[in-house]
Design brief:
The structure holds two protein chains of two kinds. Chain A is an alpha/beta fold. In chain A, about 25% of the residues lie in helices and about 20% in strands. Chain A is globular and about 45 Å long. The relative contact order of chain A is 0.15. Chain B is built from four helices and seven strands; from the N terminus they run βαβαβββαβαβ. Chain B has a seven-stranded antiparallel β-sheet with strand order 4-3-1-2-6-5-7. Classes of the chains: A alpha/beta, B alpha+beta. At the A-B interface, α3 of A face α1 of B.
Chain lengths: ~280, ~210
């Protein structure tokens, strides 16, 4: 068991998550130290961490509602303090669901539930949807995205049944706009917004794929950047500029290990730490 | 003729979702002093048309017992009740009903904590999704299979039976709402109001009846 997380990125492993190892590998590939933090380890250890990632999977088997049981866990008390201190917190897929159910996202009223990640709404099917999509980087408000430029189109994989950002309160949408909190939007390969399936793969409001808190240190995103951290993970038939890169890498293993489109989320931390 | 049909489905074995909800409500959210019992059912309430109640319940029973969308006989028990014109009178003579299945939700009050002498109420809290077409999809599924019977209205959802200590029905409803609706990280568990809604569909005063 780790006895110190000082200077490391802690990847919290709740029971039922399944992306903790690949998240640790992606952070290490970006040049930072990272270890798995089991949910029942002493909470004070979390306070030492450089940053915290809540990885994807099915925490507590998605019982009751995806993310809600983990959101009530004792470790979240410590994570709440950690996030309020301005330290970096990233929730990927199920991790995003935990952050929304904990009220860290959108974070307009801390720990109040202003959003949901509801079941996907798709025109020709229902339930779980797994595919590569394109998302567009918006604004420069989020520290997890400071290696991307506004308007960058990023291909990333998604895999979820409950990924539709939704709120009953129109004021929340307006406030998120005002604060530039919708930092990732589903788009076409050339960056155009289209609210219909499959460009918007789950019916998410405002095509939102990732939402950060007003301060920009907490990000909840449904796509999986850790599954797009190496070029070899990008499918050959992806459309857009990454298609050329990926095809040029065929039969050239040294190039296949190059950076993929998602690695910059983790590498952004280094820029944040080093200024 | 028209008839109302109610289908309640419950796992035969321990429902681990209920176990998790119980532990979260009583230990993490500290409702242990007011929550005495918890159970969960999948429910479909519908209006049907057919020649008579007997025809309706037989058609529904045949379909729901074989269609895994509604029940899987390996793991579920169910209660199907049809109320309408032509049904035979119940023993108490109050209500004309026909019944099928091996579940009796009206007698299912699973206490997990000693209730003492305080007022105890069982509230059935139905949770369903806002702006969902699931109800229509269930009705379409049944209508495609029933033959001679049709479903005109459908309401489906999850029903949580919460046994609570309360000073009257209104107090019980208030406590159930507090436990059910997730307002913040420390308040509520069972539904997110941004895409789900809930309604208390019945409240039974258990202080007035035997708890056996």
């Amino acid at each position: 068991m780790q006895d110190s997380f000082s200077g490391k990125v802690a990847v919290i492993q709740f029971p039922g998550v399944n992306c903790e190892s690949e998240s640790v590998r992606a952070v290490r590939a970006a040049g930072l130290e990272s270890e798995i933090f089991r949910w029942n380890m002493p909470p004070q250890l979390l306070g030492e961490a450089l940053a915290v990632i809540l990885p994807g999977g099915f925490s507590y088997q998605d019982r009751i509602r995806a993310g809600v049981v983990a959101a009530k866990d004792t470790i979240m008390d410590k994570l709440s303090d950690f996030a309020r201190d301005g330290k970096p917190v990233l929730g990927i897929c199920n991790g995003a669901q935990v952050l929304v159910e904990a009220g860290f996202i959108p974070g307009l009223h801390w720990e109040k539930i202003d959003l949901a990640l509801a079941p996907n709404v798709m025109s020709d099917r229902e339930g779980y949807y797994c595919n590569w999509v394109h998302v567009r980087a918006e604004g420069n408000n989020c520290l997890w995205m400071n290696k991307y430029k506004e308007g960058d189109v990023i291909p990333l994989p998604i895999a979820h049944a409950e990924g539709r950002f939704v709120t009953k309160d129109e004021d929340i949408i307006n406030d998120m706009h005002k604060n530039n909190q919708i930092v990732l939007r589903y788009c076409t390969e050339v960056g155009d917004l289209d609210s219909s399936f499959p460009v918007n793969p789950n019916g998410s409001v405002e095509n939102a794929a990732g939402i950060c808190n007003p301060e920009g240190n907490v990000l909840a995103m449904m796509p999986h950047p850790e599954r797009a951290s190496w070029l070899r993970q990008v499918p050959e038939d992806i459309s857009g500029k990454w298609k050329t890169k990926r095809r040029n890498a065929c039969c050239r293993p040294e190039i296949m290990e190059d950076e993929g489109p998602g690695l910059a989320f983790f590498a952004s931390l280094i820029r944040e730490m080093t200024g | 003729m028209k008839a109302r049909a109610k289908l309640w489905v419950k796992l035969k074995v321990t429902d681990l979702v209920v176990e998790t909800a119980w532990l979260t409500l009583t230990e993490k959210l500290e409702f242990g002093d007011i929550l005495y019992g918890l159970a969960k059912y999948s429910c479909w309430f519908m209006t049907c048309e057919g020649k008579n109640s007997e025809v309706i319940i037989n058609a529904l029973d045949r379909v729901i017992s074989l269609d895994s969308t509604f029940t899987n006989q390996n793991k579920h028990k169910y209660s199907l009740v049809v109320e309408g014109e032509g049904a035979s009178s119940g023993e108490d003579g109050k209500e004309a009903v026909l019944r099928r299945g091996d579940l009796q939700p009206e007698k299912d009050f699973p206490f997990r904590a000693e209730a003492g002498s305080a007022g105890v109420y069982a509230c059935d809290c139905m949770i369903s999704e806002l702006e969902s077409d699931k109800d229509k999809s269930y009705a379409d599924r049944l209508n495609g299979k029933l033959g001679g019977v049709s479903v005109s209205e459908m309401r489906a959802g999850l029903v949580w039976r919460m046994i609570v200590r309360a000073d009257g029905k209104d107090d019980a409803a208030e406590k159930v709402k507090k436990m059910a609706v997730t307002r913040s990280r420390r308040e509520g568990l069972l539904l997110n109001p941004h895409y789900q809604e809930f309604e208390i569909i019945s409240t039974v005063n258990l202080s007035k009846r035997s708890r056996d």
